């Protein structure tokens, strides 16, 4: 992972592999104007996924060690 700054926010760059059908759907979201870029659509999906699980993740990780989450 590499550090990167986007709109004043530090970001790490990662690489993922997706089935072609999922990539096509992400591209359609950009084409229809729902998201400005595929990256932003993926960031949104990850935020939503983590937001729904963050409380459980924090609770479970607190049992093991201290965990700092910044969403």
UniProtKB/TrEMBL annotation:
Q: Which residues form a coiled coil?
A: none
- Report the InterPro entries cross-referenced here: Arc_rbn_hlx_hlx, CopG, Ribbon_hlx_hlx
List residues of the Ribbon-helix-helix protein CopG domain.
13-51
Q: What does the entry give for GO biological process?
A: regulation of DNA-templated transcription
Q: Which Pfam families match?
A: RHH_1
Name the chain's protein: Ribbon-helix-helix protein CopG domain-containing protein
Q: Which organism is it from?
A: Methanorbis rubei
> Taxonomic classification, please?
Archaea, Methanobacteriati, Methanobacteriota, Stenosarchaea group, Methanomicrobia
